[in-house]
Each structure stands twice: as structure tokens, then as C-alpha cells.
Amino acid sequence: MSDLVMQSGSEGTISRRRFIQRGSIAMAGGVVATSLSTWGQSSSKPGIELGVHHYSVRTLFKSGELTLATFPSFARNKWGVSNIELAEELCGELVGSKTLAAEIRANGERAGVRVLTLLCSGATSLDGDSEGEREKAVTHHLKWIAIARSLNCRFVRIRAGKEGDPKDRMKKAVAGIQLLCSRLQPSDPRPLIENVTALSRRPEWLVSLVKQVGVDRCGLLADYGNFEGDVYEGMSQILPLSESICTKSWDFDAQGNETKIDFARMGGLIKKVGFKGCISMEYLGQNLGDLEGVKKTARLVRKYL
What we know:
The protein is α/β, with parallel strands linked by helices. It is built from eleven helices and ten strands.
């Protein structure tokens, strides 16, 4: 565990406490297996649960058919899921409201649905070039993390890894994310770095980043589609450190299979590492309505997991 040494001092104590509360990571030959209690299930029998990402129903929000307050019960009634994910750029109304987060949380509790994760895109990147840029990004993220705490989120999705020299960007990403982690309260959601753009699409770079930040402080979120190169090789590398998963789907063939991603193969990789937690569905297609797109995605996830 030489590359995953716990942080020392009071910050380390808080980080270890938060880490133990949110899940356990067992090291075995460099491979990490996560075991997380899941919402709505006995912690003695953890399993895989389904969630729906905000982006999947973006047209329903745009049309006014769906609102943040009604999203939890809508997701439960339409797809039978127990988790939803929200994205900062689609949640501007949460910033100015003193009651909306509490309303969403209460509605979710009544429906048996948790706002599991809030995606903090960030006005500026956590791996900014200067200390000032990183400080600005951290301040922005903390505003949204406070909202995520009010929503009772378990995780926040964060991003780092701009284009540039991998070593230089690694140094800045570690500095920015560690700064953010040092400002978190013990009750705050756990940060998960996602593979999404530029260097973060390289699995080796991303795994190195989370290890250098410290797995007691943050984890990874594995996204099916966001890799540079072979998506299946990418998933196999980041899944052992991943505490949540996000699918991607765009279109389906006559047999109901996704045309870009082999869900059977992805399911095999997920089973191999013994993942326990939430798989959130992200439908981004144009040929089906949001409802049908998520339904077809859910059918594939359930079939192969």
C-alpha cells in the first residue's frame, strides 16, 4: 500500500472516518474491490441498483413535463429505479432556493429514491494552472457540495485532466483535488473523479491520479463511453477503483442491443470485479424519446447484470 498511504493529522482522521462510513476498499495485488451499502437494501446483502442520470431526461425537463421536485417519484414510477443523478448545469434553480433541495429530498424519501450523485462540472477546472485558478474552482465546487449535502447525496462527480503534458497536469490535478478534499466536512458527499475529457480519458493517468490524491479521500466513477482507445480495456482498468458506474446509450438495433457499446461485455467486466453499488443510465440518443431510451437501456443493464 505504499502508493496509497493514509493522510496524516486531523485531515487524515476525518478522511479515514468518511471513507469507512461510505464503503470499504480491500487491496489485493493492486486490485481494489468496493463494497457499498445500497439505498433501499439491507447493508448485509449489498447489490447492484439502477439509477437515471439527469441528462437522460433533458428533453422532459426542457418541455416542462418534468421538474427537479417531481424527478424522484417520476423515475420510480416509470423505470422502477431507486436512485437519480443530477447535473449542476441543469440545476441552476437550486442555487437561489432555500427550500427546493429539502423538497426534492423529501419527495425522494417518500418514493424510495435517493439523489445519489450531483455532477459538479465546475466553472473552472480543479487542475487549473495557478493556485488562484484552483482556489476559484474549489470555491465553486464547495457551493455545489453544500447543495449536494442538503440533497443527502452520497457522491459528487468531479472532473480534472485538461490537455497538456501528462506529468504537469497530474501535479496540478492532485493539488486541486487535494485542496478540495481538505475543505470537506465529514458529512459531505464523497468525491468521485470521472473519466470524461482530455487526459481523464486515459485510464492509466486516471488511476494514477486517484492513487496520488489518496483513495481514502476520493474514488473513481466509471463511464462506459468516455475513453481514449479501447473502451473495454479502459473500463477494466478503472473499475477496481470505481464506486459508481454510468452507462452510455445512443441507439438500439432490432434485437434491442446498443449499437456502440456491448452491454454484455461491459456486464462481464463489472461482474468480474464484484462491483456493488449503483449503475446510472445515461441515454443520449435522438431517435427515441427519453422514456423509451431509458427503458431500453434499463432492459440491457438488467439482462446482463
